[in-house]
Design brief:
four-stranded antiparallel sheet; about 300 residues; 10 strands; alpha/beta; Alpha-Beta Plaits; about 50% helix
Amino acid sequence: MRAFLFPGQGSQSVGMGAALAEASRTARDTFEEVDEALGQALSRLMREGPEDQLTLTENAQPAIMANSLAVFRTLTRDGGVDLAKAAQFVAGHSLGEYSALCSAGAFDLSTAARLLKLRGQAMQAAVPVGQGAMAALLGADVEKARAIAQAAAQGEVCTVANDNDPGQVVISGHKGAIERAIALAKEMGAKRAVLLPVSAPFHCPLMQPAAEKMSDALSQVVVEAPAVALFANVTAAAASDPDTIRSQLVDQVTGLVRWRESVANMAEAGVEEFVELGGKVLGPMVKRIAPDAKVTSVVSIDDVEALTRELA
């Protein structure tokens, strides 16, 4: 069994997708479709930068999705790979869920691009710049991270945001609380704590205004049943019902990204191969969660062609 995975924020870089677009008309068409949907030359920003503009949440989110879908479409349209035959599940890390759902036909590319642009804007607007923060706790499991976050909160928001793998958990909340958590981390058993270069505290209760905006937006979008089930961030379980998926995408804005559990549960369900489309961020996490699994990262045209031959 196989699962297709889609990366989240942090996997963006200037030049992303440029070589693939040169090699594939399908990839170029994908980037142009996203540009048209947004009324923005996002593909030029992806290709040329500047990096500080690409890193802005409202640009990074649709850009990462566009890159993943360019890879996916090159694989399926040029390579003739049928998702429903090639994979049993799709999953994405945070915004990657939108990429996963788009790949599986739950909504079209233009809809995914507009939703992610709005999601990025809403998340950025939810907390004034400088008031929130996130930190990665390395060498800490989720229970240890919860204890550190609880000790650091002191009446402010400080909570586990991403349970990425057995040794990497991300916390999110008010800046002061996150700074206290970083100071406490080592003495409470983490190897080290690293402040993340993000512009807002994602996946914590401070994102509630953004969740409400996404609820409004998603209520106006047609969500189809995906061709293969989505392993959802907020439940670490498979979902195919459109109404369930819609509510999970809203819950995900403030909720914990249960990535470690999702991968472990997919492996338990029989998934032996995980294919990351458009990045090389999730693969190392997967290997730490399911060491026996085969992990493939597909970014370049050579990667696409190699996977196409494998799946033929």
